[in-house]
Amino acid sequence: MDDTVKESEVLIAAAFDAIDEGIVIVDDENTVRHINRAAQNLLQVSSDDACGRRWIDIIRVAAGPADDYVTLNNGVLCPGEYTISLASLTASGSAPQRSVELRITALSTTGCGALITLREGESIASLQKALDESRRQLEVTLNRGQIGLFEWDTRTHILTEFGYWVGKTPHTAESNSAHDSIMLADTHPDDVARVQAALTAHIKGEAEYYEVEQRIRRIDGGYYHFLVRGQAAETDASGRVLRVIGTIVDISVLREQEAVLKLALESGRQGVWEWDLETNRVTEHGYWWAGQEQENVSAQLDGAIALAQWEPGAAAVLREQTIQHLRGEIDSIELEAPVRRKDGTWGVFLVRGRALDRDANGRFKRILGTYTDISAVKSQESRLQIALENGRQGLFELKPDVDHITFSREWYAMFG
Question: Are residues 236 and 342 in the same domain?
Answer without folding.
Answer: no
